[in-house]
């Protein structure tokens, strides 16, 4: 494929972003993976949240072949995904004060658990309120965001802060403000977002670190297998039964 094509240029941009993660985010990725391993070993539960398209990376961690069985999706009605009608309502709900706190108060989250919060801009009420309220409950927070937004945009929440300001570990996706990698003659708006592929890769790298860290400590990581391989269903049934009190998506 020619690198002059739009497809080639986009893939080059994505590869460059992934290389940056490998070279510049190794420390935070190791810290996040270790924190997840610590939580699993200490009996805590794991949750992930993202609003809108950020929810795609959160969902990629839950009930996932090759992933940790203990990762649960924290859902906010109308915010996780773009299935709400109209789709613009989801964006509006991210700016509603009190909604994140209400969801947390109704969720299973408790002291000793860990919450991954994914928000590309990190500027809206939802991720900031969720992070602050979760930490007040004694929950560890890993924030996945583009730190560059803090330099180029203004906060859109009463605290005047960003998600990155309220996390135990911050993972910087390095996505440029606007999340569009390409420009093209005759196309008036930038296009080709890379945040989903980069954020998902970043989090899978963290989960790989967590699994290997547990194994290095002599603890078998509670991983799921594909249901499309022989023995996969039996394996998953055993894991989900053993850790049933820490898995909420099967109830």
From TrEMBL:
<protein>
    <submittedName>
        <fullName>SIS domain-containing protein</fullName>
    </submittedName>
</protein>
<dbReference type="InterPro" id="IPR035472">
    <property type="entry name" value="RpiR-like_SIS"/>
</dbReference>
<feature type="domain" description="SIS">
    <location>
        <begin position="36"/>
        <end position="220"/>
    </location>
</feature>
<dbReference type="Pfam" id="PF13580">
    <property type="entry name" value="SIS_2"/>
</dbReference>
<dbReference type="InterPro" id="IPR046348">
    <property type="entry name" value="SIS_dom_sf"/>
</dbReference>
<dbReference type="InterPro" id="IPR001347">
    <property type="entry name" value="SIS_dom"/>
</dbReference>
<dbReference type="InterPro" id="IPR050099">
    <property type="entry name" value="SIS_GmhA/DiaA_subfam"/>
</dbReference>
